[in-house]
Design a protein that fits this description.
homodimer; alpha+beta; Creatine Amidinohydrolase, Chain A, domain 1; Creatine Amidinohydrolase; 3 domains; six-stranded mixed β-sheet; 34% helix; 16% strand; globular
Chain lengths: 723, 723
């Protein structure tokens, strides 16, 4: 049922690019197809796959993969009074001296465009009671509305109080947030936002959109209005210590990375850059943290100039070891909150900043631009001004201090870290290989256990199965966390691409239908992400045909060889054409980038039917290969391995360029019971058999007993076709 | 040798889109990859494939496929004095009263962005002596330079006089035409162009480019300066009668087509449109002409408003039958030259024009815009102005009469005819099918003859073979013309993608190497375009491997099934991936649109590795399927069929949309001798055998004797693989 709702939020065909898809921005917005601006709010700028999960864990605890029904209950019935009370308190702030706004927009984001965020930043969830991963709340003096997409219509209906209007994004006739504001507010209103929660690009688009009805977008720098009403009940910010990411896993030391970045700054004629993406900071400094679930990152900003590097972070998280590590690379420390005063001081020094407008928040960019501008004025007038967080409210359309957009003080450019981080070095690749083998061992143990449990009719729920998988992974060396919330979907639930099993009400995993399991681990040396679909009983011919066609797409992409400079989207059709032959398709991309012991979703590359991302697949990149097929109300199929882009030894080199291909990182059997051998070609059957022989060879030494027995049974070759 | 030169004009990888490739412009420019603006001049906006040929036939004669060495000799040694004399005369005109320019740009185009043009419009050829299909001449008061691309470097060196500088477009350090003008002219010069010979878009780009050195682009409306010096020796304009394209082939009558177009005008809130593409005029009016080689079109403009339609054409070409045909549809006639006064009168009437800026020339667009503007001023000032061809010289940057670009009087939009024409109706498809069968019969006869001739060592040249092919085609019902100049390339010549055999010096077709033959016919009911590559002796293992991989790409595209709304470029990889597997590729697109008894190259669709064209493949479109492989100095391979995009009966319809596939139109054997059966999969072998059984079934009744015997031998099945 939910899957049908999802379908309704898409345009009829998935083959229309998003009107807002921008080439060369890192990653892209999934679900950003039909309702541009509200979607910009609903989804972060970062890559979103079929696993946009709410981060539910208090970040101070050990993070587990256990779902979050508790949290939902806490949120809806917790401290803070009725929702009416929250809205009343929020509106009271509109007219507070120095604020003076007519509406306030509350997005889902934190200040770093993170995919998973700490609980203390879940302001939209706190205010509305709705805890789906995607949603934007807009509150005017007399109205309150929440936008979310088809995945969450039912959930939002249940969770929203009576004062809230549910805006079903993507349904015909439903306005975007800014269209709605243009409709419901009289011309010339002031619309407030927390400028930390919007990328500069997004804020600019909003500004233009609301200007159509002469509204002004007002950046409320002083405070976040939701935090003001949240007060004591607001969860504490994350405080777990940061750790050093060992050089044997990182491969390149911080000084070298900083040196490369500085060369790029010099080449771009910039004097400094502000890095706000948490995985970029972690990668550049060879540090890892535990501030949010699933991603080993920590809240911070990093400012790098020719001569200095300053990490803005809560000092409590910095251990002695980290301090030594940073000082060796000449990285100084300042408090997280000091970022704005640093921005001002950079402007005072006449810095020219390289900024990625799709990731750096509007607070930083606008402060720098207006401070630089004041600095210019000051130089002319010999008058000294003053500015800082907590001291002012900034109109985004002030006429006396025009913002120096992309002028001589700011170069807007995709972050140079994005590509460097995507091109894994040998140590990172080695770590990824090793982590994947241990992950495969955990999965062999898990699948052997689950098969047995199902056959013994133990009536385990999807959530219990996910929990058990976590236990198997935990036993492996270097395991830290799940890399996203496990998707454990039996039968019809498997057809819900973004399914999240509710422990209280989810299905029993049985032997009457397909079971789709998409999961991953964060290890000290690497990040995994794997999907397998199995049947513990007798699959139907229909299920076998669909599974086999998904497998054929998986094999075609896995086996692709392509010239350097080929963007990922060119290969997407290889994964779909076997399904297309019988009129089937799937409504998600085929591949996303994966970090090395970092975020499970990263850019800039992707393999997708959306054609906006022109970034080429390059040696050292990691991408997922995950075609699927989802039959509404019935079953879901996905087969996912991670691949490493490598040079391919080919007998020719037409054009004098390299030809690239993939090395498989994932080594877990693909259930033979689901393969309709009559559909496979000789070459496909050979691929299947060779893969399984490799799985046995690599993983069997890491397991024993029942798991090894299971692995043996599940790596037997298919008969070669006698056509 | 030439092929190496071609290679040098490309960027290292073909997987970089042209910086000037624009989505949604009809067709695209081949070879427009590396040197934007000079290429804009060198290549027309229309689709250019690997057969950009100079139209060499005097358009009054019966057009044959005989190459044009005579014409070249005439051009280089003909009337008109030495080349110095031509340049001297041209420069003398620069300072003529009312002109006053410092440089003049002479492109290859006619006023209609035609692929093949009448001899009287070959001004660049006349002026420079260089008769390659692509080239732009620029003459300043003391310099003269010609830009052409790698295909023509050697030819241009031979043909250009000593006063000409050869600009090797695409070579490193070679400036574009406008960059060069910015370099060699002192700031603030006037650069003249004939505004009829540039699309509005191109003229705008040039204007912006030369403004960098403060130059002004001056539209010389009065006359074409080359025509002024050409005088008596200039060939007469084409005068052959226009004929009615029978409704049984056209399928839809003119009134209905006009009615559809008027609905589109109303929908776009426009009152009229000017159609200048010759194939669009011919298609809309169900007329055909013989003004240029290879394309059955006639020089004309068509203006359609809500209530009227006026054809601007030389009255001498209009027969009584055509007159009756046109008047039935309410189409009036005016002289070709009257188009400008019509544009003025449209402006007087306050018309709002729908114009395609990529095809309509700058003369028309700018005249309309400035006339509309004067009209506005007039309305305000009650003062009457005057304008017309032959009366003024227009500065494109005049400040007192700013051009109303895309203002309330002009809507710039892709021509609505472009897509309507591409979506063939049942009658057109039927005509295409029938024409292809007769063409296949001619080819069976031809190949039977050629095989015999080669085995008898008759020492036929590539040009003689092409001539003989024309004779076989001529015997078929309804044959009118070749649809482009035949590419007949033996051995190393086959590796030159745009090869044109010179009768005086071309190769003998023998049995020691591959022979590539790309040709097509214009028939009364359809247009064909087919490439086959054969070997009359013993192919090498290398040739067989390359041929087989090209064949695998051909089969993969032929067999593709894809959802509605899929742009052609998505399928391009299917045709390349078999070559990529061994590090090979080809540097041209895989498919172009084809008209029904019209231009052999038409838009808006294409199947190409250039990703700019987002036009979806749609039911009723015709596309070519022509992967290839070219080994420099050695051999060339291409296998080309035409395909008709049709709905595919598939067992599912995921997304509630149609799934599309292809119907083959071309039925000529693909030489089995060149197939390495060990590389083909079972499914590919089956495709090959089924295709050949279909060829035999459809074509054998149309031939007899040796041709039928040849057809029988060449349609025998390959052994199915015993893998």
């Amino acid at each position: 049922m939910e899957a049908a709702t999802i379908a309704a939020t898409y345009p009829v065909s998935p083959f229309f690019g998003s009107p807002h898809s921008r080439p060369y921005v890192r990653g892209f917005r999934c679900f950003g197809l039909s309702i541009p601006l509200s979607r910009l709010f609903a989804a972060s700028m970062k890559y979103r796959d079929h696993r946009r999960q709410v981060a539910t864990r208090s970040s101070g605890e050990r993070i587990t993969a256990q779902p979050s029904s508790e949290l939902r209950r806490k949120n809806t019935g917790g401290i803070g009074g009725s929702e009416d009370e929250k809205l009343r308190s929020l509106r009271a702030l509109f007219s507070r001296p120095g604020i003076g706004i007519d509406a306030y927009i509350i997005p889902s984001q934190d200040a770093h465009q993170s995919e998973f965020i700490a609980e203390c930043f879940m302001r939209r969830t706190y205010l509305t009671g709705f805890d789906g991963s995607a949603g934007t709340a807009v509150v005017t003096k007399d109205k309150a509305a929440l936008w979310t997409d088809g995945r969450y219509f039912l959930q939002a209906e249940k969770q929203l109080g009576r004062d809230w209007i549910l805006m079903r994004s993507g349904n015909i006739g439903v306005p975007t947030t800014t269209e709605w504001l243009n409709e419901v507010l009289p011309s010339g209103c002031k619309i407030g936002v927390d400028p930390f929660l919007f990328s500069y690009d997004t804020a600019e688009e909003m500004k233009a959109a609301v200007s159509k009805n002469n509204h002004e977008l007002v950046f409320v720098y002083d405070c976040n209005l939701v935090d003001e009403i949240w007060r004591e009940s607001r969860p504490k910010p994350p405080f777990k210590p940061i750790r050093v990411h060992d050089i044997k896993y990182a491969g390149v030391d911080v000084s070298s990375k900083l040196s490369t970045l500085r060369s790029e700054l010099i080449e771009a004629s910039c004097t400094a850059t502000v890095i706000s993406m948490l995985d970029e900071v972690a990668w550049l400094l060879n540090l890892r943290g535990s501030d949010v679930p699933h991603s080993p990152v920590f809240y911070s900003y990093l400012v790098v100039s020719y001569t200095s590097a300053t990490l803005f972070v809560d000092a409590n998280k910095v251990t002695e070891e980290v301090l030594v590590h940073l000082s060796k690379a000449g990285v100084q420390l300042r408090p997280y909150e000091a970022i704005l005063s640093e921005i001002e001081s950079l402007s005072d020094q006449g810095a020219k900043l390289l900024l990625d407008p799709s990731t750096v928040n509007a607070a930083i960019v606008n402060l720098f631009n207006s401070a630089s501008n004041r600095h210019l004025h000051r130089s002319e007038n010999k008058v000294k001004g003053n500015i800082g967080r907590g001291t002012h409210l900034e109109s985004t359309t002030q006429k006396d201090a025009p913002v120096q957009v992309n002028g001589h003080n700011t170069l807007f450019k995709i972050s140079p870290i994005s590509l460097s981080k995507a091109l894994k070095n040998e140590a990172e690749i080695k770590g990824m290989r090793n982590a994947h083998l241990r992950d495969a061992a955990a999965l062999a143990e898990f699948w052997a256990w689950l098969e047995d449990a199902v056959h013994k009719n133990m009536n385990l729920t999807e959530a219990e199965v996910a929990q058990k998988l976590l236990e198997f992974r935990r036993k492996q060396f270097g395991f830290i966390d799940t890399s996203f919330e496990t998707i454990s979907g039996y039968g019809a639930n498997g057809a819900i691409i973004h399914y999240r099993s509710n422990p209280d009400s989810c299905s029993i995993v049985g032997d009457k239908n397909l079971f789709l399991l998409d999961s991953g681990g964060q290890y000290v040396d690497g990040t995994t992400d794997i999907t397998r679909t199995v049947h513990f009983g007798d699959p139907t011919a229909r299920q076998k045909e669909c599974f086999t066609r998904v497998l054929q797409g998986h094999i075609a992409l896995d086996q692709a060889i392509f010239p350097e400079r080929t963007p990922g989207f060119v290969l997407d059709v290889l994964a779909r054409s076997s399904l297309w032959k019988i009129g089937l398709d799937y409504r998600h991309g085929t591949g996303h980038g994966v970090g090395a012991a970092l975020n499970v979703h990263e850019g800039p590359q992707s393999i997708s039917f959306r054609y906006g991302n022109m970034i080429a697949l390059q040696m050292g990149m990691i991408v997922s290969n995950e075609p699927g097929y989802y039959e509404d109300h019935s079953f879901g199929i996905r087969i996912e391995n991670l691949l490493h882009v490598k040079e391919e030894k080919v007998p020719n080199n037409f054009g004098g360029i390299r030809y690239l291909g993939f090395e498989r990182l994932t080594f877990v059997p693909i259930q033979s019971k689901l393969v309709d051998c009559s559909l496979l070609s000789f070459a496909e059957t050979k691929w299947y058999n060779e893969y399984h022989s490799e799985v046995w060879e690599k993983v069997s030494p890491l397991v024993e007993g029942a798991a090894q027995e299971w692995l043996w049974k599940n790596t037997r070759p298919l008969p070669l076709p006698q056509q």
